[in-house]
Amino acid sequence: MKHLRTTLGPKSKSELGMILPHEHVFVDLRTPDQPGYAEADIDDVVRLMAPEIERIKKLGVTALVECSTGGVGRRADIDLAVSLATDFPIVVPTGNYREPWIPEWVRQASEKELETWMLRELTEQIDETGFQAGWIKLSAGDDGMTALETKILRAAARAAAQTDAVIGSHTIRGRVVMDQLDVIEAEGYRADRFISIHTQEEKDFAYNVAVAERGAWIEYDHVGRGGDNEVAELVIKALEAGCGDRLLLSHDRGWFDPALPMGGLPKPYTHLSTVLLPELKRRGVDDRTLMRLTHDNPFEAFAR
């Protein structure tokens, strides 16, 4: 039986309902060499972010996926504190972001060392938190992968192949996604265990379809950030193109930012539930399809 690996332990499909597949609780977009990088008082983060979690719990959301990875301020201990304060499961990644958000130790590590690190976090625990990483998050440059980003991806594919973990990548161009899938398959892993994050940023819709037809997940994660009409039309276009079984929807919102006073002002995770889903239903998308997009697909993408 497959489970979602969360801050509160493994969760089966029967224990879960709606899942948000791309959100952030804590992010630091400064590079890791900057003073104060990823530093915050845990109580301050809980104070700011717990109310945002409580709002979506009331809307029937049962888990969210934290997308802050190495290089952009991943703090698994903070994710755990927010999770425990709200009794709400959070799925936290291993892996590392793209250049220039790559810490020196990752730059110097061999592929084998990176594979071993990710494998440990996927099968044992992240740092000393007591919970396993649920997936692998990385990224690639807009114009193509650098040698360092390719090294991280190869290591990720090898760790994922041993655990059935999904690899998600912040990749803007569809042709770069195709290159990433080539690398993953060359390492003996599968395209259907890859998430093309920010797929909406590739304006050539044919690439959206091509990535889904190759077996990968496509993710429209600008709900509440893009115009509601624009987002709804894109979702329906993907459904009409036969991509409904490979489509994920989320906000890419939150979050506590340690570069801002008291973490800044978070953006809520509610827009999908309160605006987009009713709008899609108004436009004729049936309840079964909406359930697939918000319950079934996120679980199938991240569970292992």
Please outline the helices and strands.
Elements: E1 4-6, E2 9-11, E3 18-23, H1 42-58, E4 61-66, H2 76-86, E5 90-91, E6 93-94, H3 104-108, H4 111-123, E7 135-139, H5 147-161, E8 167-170, H6 174-186, E9 194-197, H7 205-213, E10 217-220, H8 228-240, E11 247-249, H9 271-282, H10 287-302
Helix pairs in contact: 1-2, 4-5, 5-6, 8-9
Describe, in plain words, how this protein is organized in 3D.
With 304 residues, this protein is of the alpha/beta class. 41% of the residues lie in helices and 14% in strands. It has 10 helices and 11 strands. The strands form 3 sheets. Strands 6-7-8-9-10-11 form a 6-stranded parallel sheet. Strands 3-4-5 form a 3-stranded parallel sheet. A two-stranded antiparallel ribbon has the order 1-2. α8 links the parallel β10 and β11 (247-249). The chain has helices at residues 42-58, 76-86, 104-108, 111-123, 147-161, 174-186, 205-213, 228-240, 271-282, 287-302, and strands at 4-6, 9-11, 18-23, 61-66, 90-91, 93-94, 135-139, 167-170, 194-197, 217-220, 247-249.
